[in-house]
Write a structure and sequence with these properties.
The protein has a domain of 89 residues. The mean pLDDT is 87. The strands form three sheets. A seven-stranded antiparallel beta sheet has the order 3-6-7-11-10-9-8, sandwiched between helices. Strands 1-2-12 form a three-stranded antiparallel beta sheet. It has a two-stranded antiparallel sheet with strand order 4-5. The protein has two helices and twelve strands. By secondary structure, the protein is of the alpha+beta class. The two termini are 18 Å apart.
């Protein structure tokens, strides 16, 4: 279970994942402490995670629009994009984007409580994408994304 003292959420992570703090820096400062990556070294892939408080910065509408824009950037290479509404028993809801074709990020999602919190995840392959090669990896990894979403909880 990923549960850090700094973040307003927790969720179950696969045993084969490795937590890595986001190393991106702007003006010499690290980004939000709840921006991090889950590394899947055995799959040569990462889940990029970012969190935003709705009490500061962007509005929920802006963050949702950003999520659609980022998913839409893959439309050039995508063969198909499916959007599914997601909601778990802990009150986290959002959209799951499944993008088929030779795209670097075939699974993306966001979760929110629509009042205080917004979380976005993007699964990226850390190498050149060949759909024939990556399909088995996605098939293997997809239940872990479903578990992450099902176990995602906000800390109030």
């Amino acid at each position: 279970m990923l549960d850090t003292a700094l973040c307003a959420f927790s969720f179950k992570t696969p045993d084969y994942s490795r937590f890595a703090r986001d190393s991106f820096r702007a003006d010499g400062e690290t980004q939000h402490p709840c921006w991090f990556d889950l590394k899947f070294d055995s799959l040569n892939a990462s889940l990029y995670c970012s969190y935003y408080s709705l009490n500061s910065g962007k509005s929920l509408t802006e963050l949702v629009n950003d999520a659609f824009t980022i998913a839409g950037k893959h439309n050039i290479k995508a063969n198909f994009r499916k959007e599914s509404i997601i909601e778990n028993k802990y009150g986290a809801k959002g959209i799951l984007f499944e993008i088929e074709g030779p795209v670097a990020s075939p699974l993306q999602f966001y979760l929110t409580d629509e009042k205080k919190h917004f979380f976005r995840g993007s699964f990226y392959f850390d190498s050149k994408v060949n759909p024939d090669s990556t399909a088995p990896v996605l098939h293997y990894f997809r239940p872990d994304i479903d578990t992450l979403i099902a176990t995602f909880r906000w800390k109030n």
